[in-house]
Every structure is written in C-alpha cells, then in structure tokens.
Amino acid sequence: MTKIQLVTNAIIKQGLLPLYYNADETVTLEILKSLYRAGIRAVEYTSRGESALSNFTKMVEIRNAEMPDMLLGIGTIKNQKQVEEYYKVDADFFISPGFVSEVAEFLIPKDALYSPGCMTPTEIIEAENAGVTFVKLFPGNALGTGFMSAIKDVFPNLKFMPTGGVDTTKENIESWFKAGVSAVGMGSKLVSKELMASKDYATIENETKKVLDIIQSIKS
Fold first, then answer.
1. In Å, what is the CA distance from 13 to each residue of 3, 39, 183?
2. Cβ neighbours, 10 Å, residue 182
3. CB atoms within 10 A of CB 156
4. What SS3 state is found at 220?
5. φ, ψ dihedrals at 16, nearest 5°
6. What is the greatest pairwise CA distance in the chain?
7. Catalytic residue ranges
8. HSE (side-chain half, CA atoms, 13 Å) at 110
9. Is the pLDDT of residue 220 over 90?
10. Among 99, 101, 93, which Cα is nearest to 71's?
11. For residues 110 and 115, what is the distance between their CA atoms, to the nearest angstrom?
C-alpha cells in the first residue's frame, strides 16, 4: 500500500480530522495527547505562527516515542519553502488553504498525501490533473452541502473533506456525509480557543470522543 493510500484510509476510517495550532509547546503537546486518548490517529497541526515548526518537530518526537500509530499532518502550507521544511521533519501529510502547484509537484512524486483547499470546479480539476486524490472543500461553511452534492458525480475518483464551519452536532455532520464527503475537518468548533486557554484537555478529549461516536453511528 502506498503512503498516500495509508494516510487517506486512516482519515476516512476515523471520519474526522481535528486541526489546531497553539503557540505554546506544552499546550500543543497536551492537546495532541488528549486527541490520541480520544481515539484520534490522524491530526492536522496548522502552520500559523512563529513557533509552528519547532512545535511540530516536538510533536513528531513525542509521537515516535509514545504514539507510533499517530499520523501527523501539517496545514496552511502555501509555498515551496514551507513544504520542504516540514517534509524534512517527517510530516506524514500536507494540507493547504488553496491549491499550490509547486507543493503538489514536490510531494506527489514522493508518495506524500497533499490535500489542497478548493472551492470551485476549476480548482478541483487543476488539483486532480496534478495527481491530487483527496480534496479539502474550503471554506466548508461558505460552500455548503449543496455544493458537495452537485459536484460529487463529476469527480468520482476523488475523496472530499469540508473544513471551516463544520459543526459538532449530529445534524450538521450527517448532512455532510449524506452529501458525499469521506471525512470532515474540525478546528475551532472542536478545539476552541477557550478550551486551549483554560487548558481543559479533558473536555477536548470528551468532545472528540462524542464526535467520533456520532460519525461511526452515521457510517454504520
């Protein structure tokens, strides 16, 4: 099995990709551990601050020592420099807010999953022609489930995941899966700034378990 397929399968199996960023290394690592305890085996850390690269490097160290079955992805990748930096520190997969051709050209020949954000059929076609197989619909709340339903049959070989505004309620999650997505990405609705600020790792763990249970009930 290719690495791209391995990562794709892991994300689809859990049906949820949590994503977060925190400038504090300790908070970053504690959130990672709480997500792992909840049953998460693939997570996206967003490259949105000066400490992102050093924090992610530490996440990889902790993963290698304590959670070998966890896949660590890096998000908000926008250029060649970023992708090279995170590839060197062993990121398992890479996610962008938009399609970046130089990132696709760097990663796909290396059998590394690249999931770009797309919001038009033109962008999805460009990504598919570059070898992308897993597309992030972004921003999900602006596009809506109707968009997913409308384009699904045009792209039968692609997997889709909305990110941005996906809620933790069963109604919202179920509407996305009914529309044809393979997973949902969740950031602040799951790992909120308030929970991070109060270091409420138990609630992050419990809320993540609830969402995973909801998704499994929908899929079963």
1. 15, 11, 8
2. 17
3. 6
4. coil
5. -140, 135
6. 45
7. 44, 136
8. 17
9. no
10. 93
11. 14
Can you tell me the distance from the alpha carbon of 141 to that of 164, in angstroms, rounded to the nearest whole number?
A: 6
Cis peptide before 18 (omega within 30 of 0): no
**Contact present, 137 and 118 (Cβ < 8 Å):** yes
Helix (H) or strand (E) holding 204, with range, is helix 201-219
Query: What's the Rg (C-alpha) of the chain?
Result: 16
Q: Is the pLDDT of residue 68 over 90?
A: yes
Distance (Å, whole) CA 115 – CA 127: 9
pLDDT digits (tens, 9 = 90+) for 11-29: 999 999 999 999 999 999 9
Number of CB atoms found within 10 A of residue 120's CB: 11
3-state secondary structure 70-134: CEEEEECCCCHHHHHHHHHCCCCEEEECCCCHHHHHHHHHHCCEEEEEECCHHHHHHHHHCCCCE
Which conformational region is residue 85 in: left (phi greater than 0), alpha (psi within -120 to 50 degrees), or beta?
alpha
Q: Report the candidate in 13, 8, 9 with the shortest Cα–Cα distance to residue 212.
A: 13
pTM (two decimals): 0.97
Name residue 94's amino acid: F
CB 98 within 8 A of CB 130: no
